Each structure stands twice: as structure tokens, then as C-alpha cells.
Amino acid sequence: MLSIEDLALLQAIRETGSLSRAAAHLGKAPSTVSYAARQLEERFDALLFDRRRYRLQLTAAGELLVNEAARLMQDVSRLTQRVQQVANGWESRLWIVTDELLEFDTLIPVIHEFDALESGVPLRITQEVLKGVWEALREGRADLIIGATNEPPAIPSLRWMQLGEMEWVFAVSPKHPLAKAKEPISRTLVTQHRAIVVADSSRATEGSTYGVSGGQPVLAVPTMRAKILAQCDGLGVGWLPRHRVGSLLKNGSLVEKQMADPREPNILYAGWRGDHDGRALGWWLEKLKQTWLATQLVQGSDRFI
Which among 272, 282, 281, 278 is positioned nearest to 89, based on CA atoms? Predict the structure, then answer.
């Protein structure tokens, strides 16, 4: 293993091209630098310096040694920082999973605030759908889940809190046959038309769908954005989060229809494992408890991107 002094010597020789200039750069006597260079070659039993030319250069073996040593020392430095970070109560990483219903831009201001802590904790933020959100927590693919819509399942050490309610609207394209249907629209009439659903991302079960009747044709799409686009284009019908389509209802891209069987609002949950507490998780939980953030997550930005 190279010491910091050994690496500094190699880099000084590479940059200056001579033992004397390297010695001056390091503030050492030329004889000391020359001896250290020979000791390095003996240690690795390899020719590290090309002394045949006017300008002293590293051999291919020397270049490999200095490059790999620098990388290893950076790794050691990062490891040292992470060890100190964990020793001070911060996690080595915080993995947050949100339901795809929630727009990422609502988290951006919070991420800026978290960065300002300079905790050193890297964030990983991914999305799941329906049962896949709780499943990510149960299977260790999340430290914190935000925006889960179905009730908390049985998970060891599970802790959770309610964030608020999400309101739904049944909306169709103005060119869809249901746009001119007499209200309130019955479930029997809706069943005659294709439903657009966001596919459940659960890996352990078949998943679930909402607002779909037995025998109704279904088009499953990967995201809520895709569902909104599909319904705007008249490919099918279904329930949409009101906060995501407010502007589309205003400009006529979608038409809200009154239903004989209205859909109840969904309660949104945050969940985490009580046996995995850390300072970063605690900070995010405090933010989620604040009324402003919970409101932003539930209501969104009333725009479709």
C-alpha cells in the first residue's frame, strides 16, 4: 500500500520531469527523493521511472501505480467520511420511494433544504405504483415511502402516518362518446368503454386496479402522465387526481363527468421501519409532519407536464 508521501512523490516526478525539481516541489533534498524513488521500485520489484531521456518520466507500470493509488486513496477518504457520518448518526444512504401519483417537483424544495444540512447522506428517490409502494418498504427497497394510497399492510416494525386526502375526478376527452352522455353516468355504461389504468408495480402479487368493473376492457400504462395523455386522446376513461388535471379541465382538454357511484378520496400515507431510525430519516419525517409539505404532496402544482 502506498503512503500519501509515496503518492506525492510519484505525482511530483510526473509533473516536473526531474528528481531535482520534484525535490524542490516537495521541499526535500534531491538525495532524499532519489532514495525514495529507488525504494519504491524495490518494493514493487518493477521499473517505475524511465531515466533514459532528458526528462524523467514514469513508465507504464509507474503510471498504473500512481493512477490506481490515487483512486484507492480517494476511496479511503470517502470511506473515512462515511464511517464518521454513520458514527454521528447519519445513514450511509437514504432510499425514498414515492407513489407515482406524486409529482417529483413537490420534493425539489425539500431536497434543497436537505442538501443545506451537508450531512453527506446521498439520496435515492424512485417511484412505485399502488401495492408496489408498501412492497418496496417490506422488501428493503425503501427506507421511507411517501404517498402510498392503500392502507398499511402487516410489516415488521412498521410505522406510518397520514399525509392527507387525494380527490379524484372522472374525466374523459371531449371527443370520447361519454363526453356527451347524460349524467350521472352509471357504472353499467362506463363498463362498455375501455378503462385506462396505471399498472401496479407489485412484484409479489398480481397487483390491483381501482375504478374498473368486471369484464371492462383495460389499457394498462406505466405512469399517471401516460394515463392522462391516453385519456386526453380519447383512448379510454377513468379516474384522475384532481390536482394533476385542474388545468386540463379548465382548458377543455378533459371533461369532468358526474358519476352515479362517486369515488371516495384516497388517504395518502408515509411509512418507514421503526428499527431503521437515523438522522436523515428523522429529518424527512419532521418535514412530512409539516402542514405545508403534506399539502403540497396532496394538492400538487395544478399543472400537467
Answer: 278
